[in-house]
Structures are given as structure tokens and as C-alpha cells.
Predict the structure.
Amino acid sequence: MKKIFAIIITTISILIFVLSITIMVLGTTATKNNKLLYIGNYSFSIIPTSSMEGTLEDSLFPGDIAIIKKGSFNEVEIGDIVVFQSQISGLNALIIHRVIDIEDNGELITQGDNPITNPQPDSGSVLESEYQGTYSSKISLLRPIVILMFSSRGFIFLILFFIILVMLILEIVHIMKTIQEEKKKLDDQKHLDEMEALIEAEKKKIYEEILAEEKQKNQTK
């Protein structure tokens, strides 16, 4: 049972590590190409800033992984959270903000949920060519790992942590396996001793029966 538990923990650790690397690679690729990388109809966007912090159920916090669904620009509604291409300080960037209005020509007016960092709507409207997808859901459980992963030292620490964790778990599995083998040897030895004792007892019983028969014969004579 303990061995199975250790294997499960090791597997989960490896899966989390692989997921972290995948998120890192896909996130870097999306940032470099200024375009979401979809797997089927879904992609994801890692929330790097506090611009979407708020009190709404779907408000997003730094480290959240937002699941993005590939959708139609014409189906976007007011209140939806969308990902779109933009520029920050002259550099290409992917922005995830909420749609607060739709102009007559269909272009989207967006704004972050955080009233402190984003008190005004975003400058410029979102064109159909800039639209990347619509928010579907989020994963918040991995928030501490994601935040750590996207810091320069944190990512190195994360790799070392998982390597040490896997090595530790493998060592625990090895120790438990050794203990089980030693226990099996002791059980086998105990069983062997019991068999030898049983054989000796049976020999003694037979010997006593033979002596009793000999004694009875002598008395008869």
C-alpha cells in the first residue's frame, strides 16, 4: 500500500512538472508570436498582472491560468472576457480584458476589472483581426507554482525542487522495498524454523512410540 502511494505521489509530481514545462513553453511561444497557440478549440493565457483583479466571479488574478475558447468575433457579448493583440510601449502583447461596450461597427471596447490599475477603458477598440478568443474558465490551484515558474530564479528553483522531490520519493520507494524484502526473509526463516520444529516434534513422537512398543514387548516376554 505504501509503495502504491509513493508511486502515485511520484506520478503526480512528474505530471505537475511536465505541465509546468508545457505551460512555460506554450506561454513563451504565444508571447513570441503574439498569438495564442490552440490545441483543438482551446488554448490558455497566463495572467501576469493585476489588471483583471476584481470582485466578479470570473475576475482573474496574477498566476491564474485562463482557459480560452476559440470563438467568433461576432458572437462576443458585453461582459465577456476576451484575449486580443495589442501593443504596450511599442511592443506586441496579448491582453486579456473584459468587454464593456460594443461599437456600432462591431469593434470591442475593453477594460480591466481592477479599478485602481485600469480606471479607464483601454485606448483604442479591438478589431476582428486582433481578436484571439474568449475566456471560458480558469485554473487557480496552480497559481503559486505559475508565479514561481515565471520568475527567473523561481523557475530554476522549481526544476531543482521537482528533481529533489522525485529522487527523494524514489529513495523512499527503494527503502520500503528493502524493508519488505527483509521482512519476507524473516517470515520465510520463521516459517522454516516452525517446519523444522514440527519435524523434530514428529520425530520425537515417533521415537517415543517406538520405545513404548519395545517396552511393551519386553514386558510381554
The helical segments are 2-33, 143-149, 152-220. The two ends are 68 Å apart (CA to CA). The chain has a mean pLDDT of 81.
